[in-house]
Design a protein that fits this description.
Layout: E1 2-3, E2 11-12, E3 15-18, E4 27-30, E5 35-36, E6 50-51, H1 64-67, E7 74-75, E8 98-100, E9 104-109, E10 119-120, E11 123-124
Antiparallel strand pairs: 1-9, 2-5, 3-4, 6-7, 8-9, 10-11
Length: about 120
């Protein structure tokens, strides 16, 4: 992630899984073995379905994706921590692209890299 101030941050998870459409793209992430330049934040959203402006799958009664975060789809618990990566570009407060640790940290760009699993259920790919 490139911060708005020109810094670079990163987060690496050994286990990150997005399930099929029938589960509303439920996501699982394991903090075990986490490495990164920021605090581990994404496991807060473990086991949640993706939320979008028209699909409220978060734990916030006020539908945080639509009303608070400007409709950008992502995995949210009751609030975002690692990732409002589909927010409003250039907006520096809540609803913009960023992550939340002890404060809202606006980010300029995000690159997500996903590597396929080498073994799944005993099959080699």
């Amino acid at each position: 992630m490139g911060t708005s101030e020109g810094g670079k941050e990163w987060a690496h998870y050994k286990v990150f899984t997005v399930h099929e459409a029938a589960t509303a793209y439920r996501m699982n992430v394991d903090a075990f073995g986490y490495q990164g330049s920021i605090n581990e934040l994404f496991s807060y959203h473990d086991n949640f379905k993706i939320s979008t402006f028209d699909r409220d799958n978060d734990a916030n009664a006020e539908h945080c994706c639509d009303k608070s975060l400007n409709g950008g789809g992502w995995w949210y618990n009751s609030f975002y921590r690692l990732g409002n990566v589909n927010g409003v570009y250039g907006k520096r407060e809540k609803g913009g692209i960023g992550y939340r640790d002890s404060k809202n940290v606006p980010i300029k760009n995000v690159t997500v890299k996903i590597r396929p699993m080498k073994r799944t259920c005993g099959h080699v790919y």
